[in-house]
Amino acid sequence: MPSRPPKFRPEAWLASLALIAICVISLGNVIVRYTTDASFAFTEEFSVFLLVVLTFAGAAVAARNNQHIRIELIEHYLPPSALKGLFVLQWLVGVAVFGVTAWYGSTFAMQEYNWESLSPGLGLPSWIYVIWLPMLSVAIIIRITQNLVDRLRGKKDPEVIHES
Predict the structure, then answer these.
(1) Residue 159 lies in a domain
(2) Contacts 24+ apart (CB under 8 A), 17-21
């Protein structure tokens, strides 16, 4: 069995920490609610925020490893000469989607900062939650660009085993 080099990517650590925090917060809230009939006020607000961070950080990891859900049928039946064009097209669509997300996310974060909006649950500044959207969108753009370079150079993806 070939050994793979360890993956040290900040977004992988961020996604892991976000998932751990969601689990700890939710478990703590359930225990407190059932033992005291009270509930932590911050759990829903933090859990939703952490879920967004987890989703975008995980998407960046998947983009780097070429493991996004996609239709591979076209890739399998295209001649090798046309594959590079398809790879560039996939990259352009990804950059367009996440570029728009980064643009509007940063505009939204700036508006939240300028308007001094507060979160409804805890009254924290809303821009603290929103700023992660454009930052992680840029991380995804960087990772899909790295993936494109690898694919254009002919680097083969490790086989992904789908177990059911």
Answers:
(1) no
(2) 18/50, 18/51, 18/53, 18/54, 18/57, 19/50, 19/54, 21/46, 21/50
Q: Other C-beta atoms within 10 Å of 3: how many?
A: 5
Radius of gyration of the chain (CA): 20
Residue-wise pLDDT tens digits, 137-154: 999 999 999 999 999 998
26 domain residue, yes or no: yes
> How far is CA 110 from each of CA 41, 53, 62, rounded to the nearest angstrom?
27, 18, 28
Domain that holds residue 100: 10-152
- Name which of 139, 140, 116 is nearest 128 in CA terms: 116
> What is the share, in percent, of the chain residues with pLDDT greater than 90?
65
Tally of domains within the chain: 1
Q: In the chain, what is the straight-line distance between the N-terminal and C-terminal CA atoms, in Å?
A: 21
